[in-house]
């Protein structure tokens, strides 16, 4: 009973000018690290998982582990559907207990995007599940979602206003220059565009692809209306680099209860840092 929608936590973040971090998780260990750290820092938090993660770990496993984590910590949080596209898949997961979704129809033309997302909103709101959707298109790669940078498109502020009014979504993912995966050079965010979107749209705004964006730029985005900051790649790198390093030092290691420890510690540092940058500590 402890998996909640993102709606109230993002609205509170919007009122109080901070952002809720959304961390992509993959297994028991990554869930433990994010939840333990967020609870210690008294930060609201969203655990995000892509379709590939639900397939890998199993929907019921993920939901059960997350419900258990929320219950033993007395800590309600959102388990979120990140970049989901398949309507019946989303419906199945909502019916299984998930209350926070992203329907990504950003690759469809504007009217089709509105049509798909509106239908999903009507279904989701019956379950009090919050809906995030994307207008414009982020470049880069997240799991099976690969968008060539030439096919990426920034969010148009006027279109965003119409999109939000017609779809009745709860939060809007904006494309302002961030990308999924690793940045080759210094990322450039279009803050003027973000300010214009904020002026036209009154729901919480979401920044995808925050791994590798310098702290000052994330903070500036938050000051201009970003209420949810998505972090995936940096966590994966910290976790796997620490694992690799540990195996180098201990080539005969064979006990996951030991070799997972440095990986968890490395990931915890990133989680702590992102919570600090988001300004969400103490906001439970
Ligand atoms: Zn994303």
Task: Please explain how this structure is put together.
The chain has 284 residues and is an alpha/beta fold. The protein has a single domain (6-278), classed as Alpha-Beta Barrel (TIM Barrel), CATH 3.20.20. Helices cover 50% and strands 17% of the residues. It has eleven helices and eleven strands. The chain has helices spanning 7-16, 28-40, 51-57, 59-73, 87-95, 110-126, 157-167, 191-200, 215-223, 233-249, 256-278; strands at residues 20-24, 46-49, 78-84, 100-103, 130-135, 139-142, 145-147, 171-174, 179-180, 205-207, 226-231. It has an eight-stranded parallel β-barrel, surrounded by nine helices. Strand 1, helix 2 (28-40) and strand 2 (46-49) form a beta-alpha-beta unit. Helix 2 runs parallel beside helix 4 (59-73), helix 2 (28-40) packs across helix 11 (256-278) and helix 10 runs antiparallel to helix 11. The longest helix is centred in the last third of the chain and has 23 residues, at 256-278. The protein is globular. The model has no long low-confidence stretch (mean pLDDT 95). The structure holds zinc ion. Zinc ion is lined by residues 83, 142, 180, 208, 230. One of its GO terms (biological process) is carbohydrate metabolic process. Pathway: Carbohydrate metabolism; D-tagatose 6-phosphate degradation; D-glyceraldehyde 3-phosphate and glycerone phosphate from D-tagatose 6-phosphate: step 2/2. Keywords: Lyase, Metal-binding, Zinc.
